[in-house]
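Feature request, filed as a ticket because there's no other form

It would be nice if the structure record came with a short human-readable summary line next to the C-alpha cells. Right now we just get the raw output. Example of a typical job, pasted below so the devs can see what we mean:
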Amino acid sequence: MLALFRKTPILGALLAQVVALPVVATVTAPLSTSVERLPLIMIALVLQGALAALICALLRLPRWWLLIAFLFPLAMGSVMLLGNLPAWPFGLAFLLLALVFSNTTRGRVPLYLTNPETASVLKDMMRDRGATRMLDLGCGLGGVVRALDGEGRRARGVENAPAVYLAARLLSRIAGKGEIRRGDIWKTDVSQEDLVYAFLSPAPMAALWQKLSSEMKPGSLFVSNSFAVPDVNPDEIWELSDARKTRLFLYPIGKPEEG
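Raw output as currently delivered:
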C-alpha cells in the first residue's frame, strides 16, 4: 500500500486530508463555545494542514507534497472566507497547475530548471568531447537546449507537461535555437546522441539508467544533475561553484569502438 502512495503521491495526499478531517473536527468541536468563529476556523485550518502534512511524511511522500498538504486547506479556507466568488477562476487555476505539474503527480518528477552556470559547463563538456548531438530528457523550459544548440552542435529536448512544453517550444522558436518536442522520455530514441542530460528526481534514476545503458551508443555520455544512479558508481562527479553547488554525475556508456 505504501508503494502505491509513493508511486501516485496525489492519492496519498488525498488520503491524508480525509484522515485528518475528523480528527481536527473532534479536537476543535469543544472550542466552538469559547472561541470566536474566525479564529476557530483559522485554528482548524492550520491543524488540518499540519496533520495532513504529518500523515504525508508517515506515508513517505516526496517533501514537496508535505508543503502542498499543509497549504491546501489554508487555500481552500481562504476561498470560503472570501465568499461570493465565481468558481471558474479556481477551476482554471487547477487546470493550469495540472498542465504545468503533471509530471509531478504521475512520475514524481518536479519541474527543476538548470541554471546558466551549469548550461555553460555542459557546453564546454560537449566541446571538449567533440560531441555534436545532445538530448535533454525532461527539458523544462528548454534553457539548456537553447544554450547548447549551435556552433556545430544539435541540441534537442523532450518535455511531457503540456504547458511547460508549449512555453519551451515558443521560447526556442523565438530564439531560433534548439528543437523541443512533447513526448515520453521512456519512449524517446537515444541511440544517436553523444550526450544525454537529465535533471529529474531520485525516483526514476534506476529505471532511466537501465534504458540509457542499453540504448545509448558506446562512447556516449549520460550526465545527471544532482541525482545519482543508485548502486552505480559514476565515472566522475563534477562539483560546480554556482550558488546551489550543483553536482553533475557522469556515466560513460560502454567503450568507444576502435576503428
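Something like this underneath would help us a lot:
The chain has a mean pLDDT of 84.
The first helix runs from residue 2 to 7.
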